[in-house]
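User: I'll paste a sequence; please echo it back and then give the predicted structure.

Assistant: Echoing your sequence first, then the prediction.
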Amino acid sequence: MYYRTMKSPRWPAGVVGCIGCALLTAALAAVRAAEPPDLTLQPCPVPPRLDGVLDDACWAGAPTVSTWCAVGADETSTRHRAWVTCDTAWLYAAFDVAQPAADRLESRAHKHDENVQREDNVQLSFDPGTQGTLYYQFLLSKANVRADFRMTKAKGREREEWNIPWRSATRQSESGWQAEIAVPLVLLLTAGDVRQARLNLLVDTFSAATDQRLEHSWAPLARDFHEPERFGALKGLEQVTAQAPFLPLLADPRATGYELAAGEYSYQVVASVQSLSPVGG
């Protein structure tokens, strides 16, 4: 018995390119053929305390997302977990991101609406039932820096000129990081048919070790994060009567210069405050 070693054939560059295109086309076709997921909300009687610690009773009883689709590829992962719930005022989402501390890049975004999408972040996308003509996207970095925008077919993406008050918290550990998001229902349900509401959750991480970006989505996306027709169906929201909470919107915060008075230095923080609900606080 003997073994013959065979040399690998040298494929012409054009052939390699055709093979690559064929594989990519097949993967995208498989993604497009996949059915969008669905989730039925279970309203929580006691809202979570947004502190990045996912030990609230509401998360234990909330629907869990544990299977994630690689964006643009026919691959899945079970590394991360997420939960979704609501009450009459807020839509809540929690994320448990499996990313060791040694594999995390340093956060670079520090201001609202900076390029949060260029570093480790989680995202919540919500279409209130407009069949993709209007949807919202909320981005949160592991350092608890937020960005948000409204997307419409008429105007495209509105980012710096569109802002609403929403809440968040994050916490980092050696094995990963956790995030909690709360978005106000009363400001998101002004259009569409809530019975057709759609949702997507995203985990977007960057590896410090391999310099690789890993984009995972609850819904199977063929191109990028902006495919509202592929978002998952969000059921049960029609059973919720949205009520306005206290919604203060702070803008343009800034610190004044130091002042010396009675032998002590002090400074002031100045900001404009606008209330987006009739509820005081």
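The mean pLDDT is 89. Residues 96 and 189 are 27 Å apart (CA to CA).
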